[in-house]
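Quick log. Single chain, no ligands specified.
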Amino acid sequence: MHKIRVIPVLLLKEWGLEKSIRFEDPVYIGSPINAARVFNGRNVDELILLDIVATREQRQPIIDVVSQITEEAFMPVTVGGGIRDVAAVRELLNAGADRVVINTCAVERPDLVTQAADCFGSQCIVVSIDARRSADGSYEVFTHGGTRATGIDPVDHAVQMQEVGCGEILLTSIDQDGTMDGYDLVLTQRVSDALTIPLIACGGAGCVQDLADAVDVGHASAVAAGAFFLFFGSRRTVLITYPSDDELLEAFDQSQIRLKKPNPTVLPKGAAQ
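-> predicted structure:
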């Protein structure tokens, strides 16, 4: 069995770290640099950093923030937020990011995904899809931090992003985000089964078994979470944690996971500059 990538997602607001529930009412957690230092000692596979206000403020992630976090992090780091051109991708890679996430602009300008993949390789380009469930059971892609409906089905969007050159999909359920009630396994499975590239499931993890279910039932290639790694207990006390290898192996082994897709190649820092 392949090792499953289990990835903390850190939401950035300038120099701060925040966490929301269903993309609303973010609360301040602390310093993302301190969080990266804690994760260094937890054998974390990689980190995802998403600047949650960059698109609204019409900018990319703050380079000084990214540089300081990647300097502290011993694991690969993927960075996103407000990416609108190839120059921004290059700048983030030069700042120490291993991969770059494109979300809103992937809907508005799919050609940017192609351009970035052509310049830096598809393994460097992740497309993030934020989806919300409708009353009739259908799903819709939302952009601009989950505030703008697009009328696009996430399966169709994911397939298009695969066709234009992205190397991986980061799929987040807005409905489950921050709830710690488990992933939307229906959404995850629908999108993953339509792809040949890997998919990272995000939104809703509250226990180690949820991580395993996203792979076993949802057919995700990797799992990501925010609140699960940042809060403890029903009072959501801030406590940065990460499961031990033994805990992860036990949960995944019990689920008898069989991966259907290979893990993407993550280049060493600086190799894609």
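The domain at 5-254 is CATH 3.20.20.70 (TIM Barrel).
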